[in-house]
């Protein structure tokens, strides 16, 4: 059986940067096809070609055996291609049914929008997907998982035959991932061709039949998933053997840097207490919604707390004041780097130096030379890949954006660094680099608090693990005591 769609020897450059070079692979009906590679490997450029946003410089897309050129997204949609992005882009003030019907609204005989038919059609699509979403409710306030279901329903409404899913599980809980996979498998079994992009290998092996691996914009291989081990995929993605993803260095544990006692916030967390010492990595583990991020945002001063104390280097820390935390020597790398960690429109150099703008200024003026020197030093230290320091930080890959957030805080010379989901949404090679950096920083005496939903990361990097469930501490484990089973028992409230 021929391919529904074939990417054939496509190339795409942006100025002097060759984003994609000679990439080819087929997509077959009734099959889920994984597209994997490090950040910057060219996956997003391929997705935008399929979506009609970019046109290949050379090479072509072949649909049902016919060479095809997409002049824009409308052409891709007409060819039966739909893209589900990591962060859906619905119209928040329109209803779910209106979002699904956008651009293809049913009309009455009087050429008015038939709202009843629109709602009936949306309900039928959700029934086909086996999920419950109210067609009449506004899109605003929907969870990311439900927004993705609306996007999938919209694709079905447009009779899409190729569904491209770009990091769809990055912001979902385990239950939401299971539901999404059930829907995706059903669509695959109905004959849709699925393109699935993920950094999570367990998802690829669970869902996909074939995998295309890219590296540095080039096609490495397209193989049946069953013929490759995870180690094989990692090796081909990064072009080298990764001796370990968790290069934990030995560190001398020093004085107590952070003391949290009885920290409580009504309805969010209660009686949370722990310490962090110099040279130590302490992980906060638990399921999504356990309150880990909320605790650390309260410690840093982003959010207020009702009761408890936070002491930093032996002194009480002013609650609700990030400025006081920064001045004391604390840094926070937030979970959402794009919304909370960076100003996407500003340059790489400006983002790196933002917390140190006053220190770098002379007579109240911030000069470009000082800013560039500071940014060049830290981007070099973190081996960040970019074109120019004057480029907007939004042009960088996810992994390199994360390095810029880290550089921003390391430039302040912190005594304590809080990292919330430090490797979410970044590729395996960059994960290893981030782990190596955190381990090296701890070895130099920095105290690190790491919030992570990835158990291997917690077990591989932490000296001690604080497990939270529903806002309270259920276990405190040393590195020697910690196992996946012990952490999960504590996180789910099951007896050991």
How many DSSP helices?
18
**Main sheet characteristics:** 6 strands, mixed
Q: Can you give the mean pLDDT?
A: 87
Q: How is the largest sheet built, in terms of strand order?
A: 6-7-8-3-9-10
What oligomeric arrangement do these chains adopt?
A: single chain
Fraction of residues in helices? 25-40%
Q: Write down how many β-strands occur, each being a DSSP E stretch of 2 or more residues.
A: 20
| Count of domain modules | 2
Extract low-pLDDT stretches.
none
Q: Please compute the radius of gyration using only Cα atoms.
A: 24 Å
Under the CATH scheme, which class of the largest domain? Alpha Beta
Per CATH, the architecture of the largest domain is 3-Layer(aba) Sandwich
Strand content: 15-25%
Global geometry: globular
For this structure, the CATH topology of the largest domain is Rossmann fold
Structure description:
The longest helix has 16 residues, at 174-189. The model has no long low-confidence stretch (mean pLDDT 87). This protein folds into two domains: 5-90 and 142-238, P-loop containing nucleotide triphosphate hydrolases (Rossmann fold), CATH 3.40.50.300; 256-492, Rossmann fold, CATH 3.40.50. The chain has 18 helices and 20 strands. The protein has helices spanning 43-50, 73-78, 96-101, 115-129, 144-157, 174-189, 201-207, 230-238, 292-300, 322-328, 337-341, 348-353, 357-360, 368-381, 398-410, 428-443, 455-461, 484-492, and strands at 5-14, 17-27, 32-36, 58-63, 66-68, 81-84, 162-166, 193-197, 210-215, 218-224, 256-265, 269-277, 281-285, 307-312, 315-316, 330-333, 416-420, 447-451, 464-469, 472-478. The chain is globular, with a radius of gyration of 24 Å. With 496 residues, it is of the alpha/beta class. This is D-xylose ABC transporter ATP-binding protein. It is a peripheral membrane protein. It comes from Couchioplanes caeruleus subsp. caeruleus. Its main location: membrane.
